[in-house]
Predict the 3D structure of the following.
Amino acid sequence: MDLHQLRLLRELGERGSLAAVARALHVSPSAVSQQLTALQRRTEVPLTERRGRTLALTGAGQALAEAAMRVGVAMSSAEQAVSRYVQDPTATVTICAFNSAGMTYFGPLLADLSGEGNPRLICHDRDVGQNAFPALTADYDLVLAHRLGHSARWPPSLTVLPLVSEPLDVAMSVRHPLAGRPDVGVSELIDEEWVSVQDGFPLESAVQSIAVHAGGPLNITHRINEFFVAAALIANSPAGAPMPRHTAAPRRGGPVVLKPLRDLELSRHVDILCRPETLHRTAVRNVVDALRNRAIPAPEDGGRMSP
């Protein structure tokens, strides 16, 4: 049964006439009558009867009106419960991220939100292709996703909160012949071995862009999705790979260095994806604020991400 129609029936029982109900709800008497007629079609016994010039409730109508009152109480209780949940800053928030974003943000985020009065954070890692990130918003409150600067944007049905935009450099071993250069050109890398990602993953198109700029296919010898695994491989081989400058940067003084491409601009965007209604929750907004605070570039290191 329609909740609005049940409310009108209850109001008729308490106010005594269609005109009184119409005045109270700021509608016309005919509109009230139409809704009560629609409700009557859903029941097998009469709900109202004429008593002189007044429309009154029958015994069945009174019973249904009392039930409508209890339904109204239950709905009010449910609305209050939802309101408390939406406004609760300590509610549980689920978040998933691709591997390098999880490595960058999960630990610091848990530390930032460890005190009383903060959300309870549940973290998941999901390493998927770019097209699969939007669907994850059905299972998690917040999704950390990445895409290249020239790739398709996220679906308009999602709320997209930009977190980081960073260049892609070429990672290589410190023993590589080009490691001493301040930057490298695509023409110098045509004959090199390359590490790429699995088909469909965001950085695959970065490798393809380098190949297009080079005028021919690259020599892809390894396919590794995880940047830190790729870095371990690069440290002990002549291979190179596109790698984000900040969120997956190798440690300074380590066996792997990043070299900017001087003749090709590649970048990646790290975004927070969620369903629009998710941001109605105070706890979710607090987690978003904490993530954005962690994404502020630190001036002392030239814009490197906060650890």
Notes: The chain has eight helices and eleven strands. Helices lie at 3-15, 18-25, 29-40, 59-87, 99-112, 204-214, 227-235, 282-294.
